[in-house]
Sequence to fold (360 residues):
Amino acid sequence: MYIEKIKLINFRNYIEQEIELNKRINIFYGDNAQGKTNILEAIYMCSIGKSFRKKREKEIINFNKENLMVEINYIKKEINNNKIKLEINNNKKIFYLNKIKIKKLSEILGNINIVIFNPDDINILKGPARNRRKFLDIMISQLKIKYIYNLTQYLKILEQRNNYLRQIKYENKELNIIEIWNEQLAEHAEIIFNFRKEFINKINNKINNIHNKITENKENIILEYISNFENKNNYLVNLKNNINEDIKKGYTTVGIHRDDFNLFINNKKIDIYGSQGQHRSAILSLKITEAEIIYEEIEEYPIILLDDFMSELDNKRKNNFLENIKNNQIIITCTDKIEKDNSKVFNVKEGKVLEEQWKE
Fold:
């Protein structure tokens, strides 16, 4: 799988730009705030359906413009002429897949498979549990349509249940009606839990070998899945037992929406005992493992997006990392020019991309 061409119109600081990519390594270099990360953001949005940045999506449209367009031509399963187009007009976001309008945002997932690396990834391990759930959700959603559907339904039902909990608390609504949402939550939660458990197992089957290479066999690594869900019947009992606490707090206190995972290096929790270097190595191993799992699932190498990531690594980690992704299309942003074999190099300045050279 690889991207052939990207077209941007009114996307952040790009007025109109077309970029033709190499199927192997593409290097975008330039000073900060010139538009390098915007290119990765455009690819990410056409793959995942939303930005990896936290800012409001209406800010993506170029200043003083009313709409934007992103178009990505890509090859998958050796089939040409695959195209995803994103339009945002009057704050309405519309995707097209091969010229057909996408009705549900979830339908965009799994068409362009990506793994992104950026300096903020360290917060997956250091930050709150929602960061780790997001990591799992994005990885699994790219591969399993059933997971996307059940996760979406679960979150909708959870919101409805939470709203009714507050109505019980403040408006004395009937308590027994809550059982309708309990049954629905349990049904979807069981499916989500089984998918997450399966993928945590897949990660554990691969990550230690990858991490051994990165750390020269000095460290062992393992993930531990944390969930208060066991099975559907057990979850229904927990919901019933926690109903008073849920009413008091106004939200559902148990369920897969509170799942987490711990990561251990040499049997020690990394968030407590891990050094900065160990955190970097661990997230590197986790993302490489994600890329390998995607390859095994779809028999295509995912596209690797590296947002100013190489600067975070020493030479050993860089070499080990690049060796692990040698078969993927790689799109790199950096401040200093990098020269690699089989690469295309672009200079980015003030929202304009200039191709400098192509090495074969």
